[in-house]
Structure formats: C-alpha cells, structure tokens
Amino acid sequence: MKTAITPTRAENFSEWYQNLITAADLAENAPVRGCMTIKPYGWAIWELMRDEMDRRIKAQGVLNANFPLLIPIDFFNREAEHVAGFAKEAAVVTHYRLKMIDGALQPDPESKLTEPYIIRPTSETIIGDAMSRWVQS
Fold first, then answer.
1. 22-54: b (≥16 Cβ within 10 Å) or e
2. Are 25 and 39 in contact (CB under 8 A)?
3. Cβ neighbours for 50, distance < 8 A, ≥ 6 positions apart
4. What pLDDT is recorded for position 119?
5. Mind listing the pLDDT tens digit for each residue in 94-117?
6. Coil, strand, or helix at residue 49?
7. Residue 88's pLDDT band (boundaries 50, 70, 90)?
8. Are the C-beta atoms of residues 53 and 64 closer than 8 Å to each other?
9. Residue 7 predicted with pLDDT over 80
10. CB neighbours of 105 closer than 8 A, spacing ≥ 6?
C-alpha cells in the first residue's frame, strides 16, 4: 500500500503522526518549543473524541476533576526518582509578574516566587497529593 505520508506509520509512528497532522492541516507548530496550535478542524476532532470519552467514562460512574498546571517544585523533590526521566522537559516558573525594565517586559525582580513552580499538564505528583486527602480506606 502506497501512502503520500512518509515515513509510514510502521516505519516511524511519531514522525508519521506529526506529518499526518500537518498534511491534514489540523495543527501547526507553535512559537513555543514543544507546543502546537490546534486549528479549527483539529479542535473539532478533539471535541468529538473528548465528548465520546467523557460519555463512556461517566457511564462507568467516574466523575471529572481538574488539577493545577503549576506544581510546586517540592512535589517533584518528594518523588525525584519517579520524575527523573522527564524533569528536564519541564518549564520552570520563577516570578509572578512582569515589569517594563529598560524598555522591555521582564520578570519583576520583586515578584520572585519563594518556591518555583513546574509546568506539567499531567503530573502524578499533584494528583497523588489530592488523592491522599480524598481517598479514605
């Protein structure tokens, strides 16, 4: 079977998938490293998948929850061995305000956080902390 997208799925799934998304015009690389901007048709597909999965999960009696995107670095230090493999791929937030300094927006030196936050869209560390309070057995 001949395909216009190379490499094939069997040859290199990750590259094939990225090329498929680009060829279908569903998303494009964002100016932020590691991020994509999802275009309207891509978002529509995402909503259909999300809604179907949500329906199926709720049919099993599961309820949704939402966890913070920003995670205190201390949470990662508690599980340093667990996060070692992806810690280098995390963004670190050190300030909470921008200020015009020498004609450019920069982190306000007076807004330095006492503890940095790590940005992870999914993190067992923050979920585990909540579950330890929620689950009683």
1. eeeebbeeeeeeeeeebeeebeeeeeeeeeeee
2. yes
3. none
4. 86
5. 999 999 999 999 999 999 999 999
6. helix
7. low
8. no
9. yes
10. 98, 99
